Amino acid sequence: AILVGGCLLLYLLLISAALIESMIRPLQTLSNVVSSLREGDYSFRARGAGSQDAFGELAGEVNALADLLQKQRVRSLEATALLGRILEVMHAPLFAFDRENLLQLVNIAGGKLLGLPHTRAFGRSARELGLEELLEAPDQSVHSFGSKPTRWLLRKAAFRQDGAPHMLLLLADVSLPLQEEEQAAWKRLI
Description:
Elements: H1 2-38, H2 54-89, E1 94-97, E2 103-106, H3 108-114, H4 118-121, H5 126-129, H6 132-136, E3 142-144, E4 151-161, E5 164-173, H7 175-189
Antiparallel strand pairs: 1-2, 1-5, 3-4, 4-5
Helix pairs in contact: 1-2
């Protein structure tokens, strides 16, 4: 009777270990998939997503989340590439400053206006770049800036990136239209 009881106890322990293993393994797999998602690797998928138990449903939801995150990453990369291309071909100087007034974004036209390659202007303060006056100026005001007698219409817009406030400055060359208006006004006076 003791031998039968011992065998029965050993049998129950083996079955318990197998049941525990069958529950722990899917949880470890799901944990690894969620960890890879958190780290930005969306290539891993949980197995057993087709089964009709709770683990199968959870695996299906984790895989759906991975698919969604992968699509969002692709859209973000495409949007970033589009923005880079727009900034590259844009003729109006564009600057973006963070809340410490450090330059975070400048296009090629902005770099030309500053007389610096746009990569060397990045991270400098508005004061160092001579743009502090523009940050403090009202939207749609006209300014002379740079060595040329060019007049610029300032457009300002606030935006947030990673939860922090930023300021976008766009300069449009209005020298020619203003000269034409001044000439027309002089002709009316004469």
